[in-house]
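DATA SHEET
Item: assembly model
Revision: 1
Owner: S.N.
Input lines:
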Amino acid sequence: MIGNHSLERLRPTIPFQAAMLALTVMLASAALGLADRATRQPIADAVAADTRTSLAQVLPTDSYDNDPTDDVIDARDGDVPVAVHVARKGGVPTAVVIATRARGYGGEIGLVVGISRGERVLGVRITRHAETPGLGDKIEIAKSDWVTSFAGRHLADPEPAKWAVRKDGGAFDQFAGATITPRAVVAAVKRSLELYRREHATWFALRKPS
Amino acid sequence: MSDYRKILRDGLWDNNMIAGQLLAMCPAMAVTASATNGLGMGLATTAVLVASNTLVSSVRHLVPSAVRIPIFIVLIASLVTLVDLSLNAWLHELYKVLGLFIALIVVNCGILGRAESFASKSKLAHSAVDGLAMGIGFTLMMVAIGAVREVLGSGTLFAQASLLLGPAFAFLELKLFDGGALLMVLPPGGFLVLGGLLAAKRALEAGRQRRGVVVAQSA
């Protein structure tokens, strides 16, 4: 144990300062590394449970008997990696849920878009976002029912030019004080519908129903 | 004890983080569009503030003054990350509500401010109480700014409080009127309300001082 006296003498020396700084950073990194290891699995589980919940919210309950959380195809929409969850009933695909992302005001927005075989939107839910509390966060179903305005839409309803927020001459409401957020979500839903139209034949041929 | 009374008084009023020291302007402007958000940010910050003050105070004899600031920043940032990870893993429902705020705590200069100006020079118990007092004072101001902005801007009070505090607190959610002045929800509203609250605090203190003078003269 170092006495208070020798500590007082050591403290102003540069090697001691460097060592203390290094020690602090090492201890902090170790603590963060351990915490990351300890929390990685619980966080992954919690996120999977969230995915299951949000998939269930955008798929009609009687439309599938598989677990779409695991029945997943990795696809790309341009340069955005998307996960395509396939809902099947009796092995036959009935719908897909595209888990995609949009670039919002405060960073990335994760959303799931349920699409029926008739190319209609079954539902849209936001899975994660970092939009401004009180403004952009109205895309969450818990805060506003805005996101339900997509249900039943397809690429011809509204017409392609109207797939935008009202401020841009489109058919979807924006929020007071937040335009970038809903604009990003509207664009992502439209892109998902277009992706489905282009790719669904490939997806459904990809995996033989078990 | 008078030590603790002074610390509490400092944190809650005299030296209030927002209204006295004018620190923590980033969260005070960014997340006070509603009273509930102010409360969430305030509570999360209070927890980090108590922990960081305690930690900084307990290592204060080891930290050389020339490198104290980087060391405090590393400690605070690590602490916030630990809170962020643990909440995400084990209190996931709460994380989905508070998660937005937690990363923002790092940019709260009030926390470094307390580490630097109080915890690095004070006893462990005093530092912990100071963290608590500063945190509560911060929370009260956040809720006050949030409440004024929310009422004027959205016509509601404590909207979505049940998401933060649980369904038992749904009674807090009030709807006063439709619409409201958008300006108050946008960033300028934060500055206007903060200015108003600061002026009110000064007026109150000035009034009290004047009365004190009158009493002293007549005695």
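QC remark: The mean pLDDT of chain B is 87.
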